[in-house]
Amino acid sequence: MTHFSKMAAAAVLSLCAVTAALAQVKVENGWARATVQGQMATGAFMKLTAPQATRLVAVSTPVAGVAEIHEMKMDGGVMKMRGIPALDLPANQTVELKPGSFHLMLMDLKAPLMKDASIALTLTFKDTKGKETQQQVSVPVSTNMPGAAPGAQHHGEHKH
Ligand SMILES: [Cu+2]
Known about the structure:
single chain, 160 residues, mainly beta, disordered C terminus
């Protein structure tokens, strides 16, 4: 492991620790894709692990006029994305939001998302009893998945 990737891993881990201590749902490896001038939409990604079964039902952010939960799926040989009303988070199972799969869609951006900035996201969860909780997270803006080098962010919890 290079010195840089060690530091990056430490930064990600300390972010994990902070969010886990404050909140019910563990949010790890969050990031949003940087945009260029004139681009109106982008995606935000993260790993979510809920201690008890819950669902992600909404997302909002001050940087975008509209934020939705999306999924990408092959449909007749074409990759399509669509909004979904909720994302199921089974107890103690890590659900990964990543490019090509589930993601948070940020639309009607108020300004380009600059690399190395960070954005605030408010996640709304609704548990099996119908109780809603909100959780604030801050995620870095990046052009690609941070620490995307193979194995760089392996937490030993890979599931297929
Ligand atoms: Cu989308």
